[in-house]
């Protein structure tokens, strides 16, 4: 059974339970399987040799998640070809594609954790009560070591965008 971290975070001030380990800088990035679309999956190895900025959001159709994804889409332009920006949510791939088209987001790769919640459990961000992934940021270096991690304490708060981007730049 996966580890549960009760009260590790809140949603509008109410405690929620996160499933999975709390990863730290220096840990090996766990592998995961997420959906690119209904027929294709992706995993950590698909981004081998790249610096990975992984932006995790509960749902693209909410204000903070929308703003977070748009911000990292803008930042992606200046990060270089050796960096990939991934946004992972439990939204269906159809919803992700619709949202990206409507928002003009074209530099971020959206991946869906809807099938198995593999990413959420491996990275300790699966919200037991909602079966969504908790807002968080991970920067993983080219050797798949975690170089930066931010677990948000409150689901409705913004992450530290500057610190995440600085972490990526420090690896270049």
UniProtKB/TrEMBL annotation:
Alphabetical list of InterPro entries matching this protein: Redoxin (IPR013740), Thioredoxin-like_sf (IPR036249), Thioredoxin_domain (IPR013766), TPX (IPR002065), Tpx_CS (IPR018219), Tpx_Peroxidase_subfamily (IPR050455)
Molecular function (Gene Ontology), one example: thioredoxin-dependent peroxiredoxin activity
Family label: Belongs to the peroxiredoxin family. Tpx subfamily.
Domain Thioredoxin: 23-172
Annotated function: Thiol-specific peroxidase that catalyzes the reduction of hydrogen peroxide and organic hydroperoxides to water and alcohols, respectively. Plays a role in cell protection against oxidative stress by detoxifying peroxides.
Catalytic activity as recorded in UniProt: a hydroperoxide + [thioredoxin]-dithiol = an alcohol + [thioredoxin]-disulfide + H2O
Quaternary structure note: Homodimer.
Record: active site: 65 (cysteine sulfenic acid (-soh) intermediate)
Protein's name in the database: Thiol peroxidase
Entry's EC annotation: 1.11.1.24
Keywords, comma-separated and alphabetical: Antioxidant, Disulfide bond, Oxidoreductase, Peroxidase, Redox-active center
């Amino acid at each position: 059974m996966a580890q549960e971290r009760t009260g590790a975070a809140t949603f509008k001030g109410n405690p929620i339970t996160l499933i999975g380990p709390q990863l730290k800088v220096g840990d090996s990035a766990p592998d995961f399987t997420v959906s690119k679309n209904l027929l294709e999956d992706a995993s950590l190895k698909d981004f081998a040799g790249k610096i990975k900025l992984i932006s995790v959001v509960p749902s693209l159709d909410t204000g903070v998640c929308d703003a977070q994804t748009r911000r990292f889409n803008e930042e992606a332009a200046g990060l270089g070809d050796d960096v990939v920006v991934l946004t992972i949510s439990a939204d269906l791939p159809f919803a992700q594609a619709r949202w990206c088209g409507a928002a003009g987001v074209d530099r971020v790769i959206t991946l869906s954790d809807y099938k198995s919640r593999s990413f959420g459990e491996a990275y300790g961000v699966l919200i037991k009560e909602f079966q969504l992934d908790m807002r968080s940021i991970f920067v993983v270096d080219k050797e798949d070591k975690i170089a930066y991690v931010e677990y948000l304490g409150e689901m409705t708060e913004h992450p530290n965008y500057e610190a995440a981007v600085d972490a990526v730049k420090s690896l270049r």
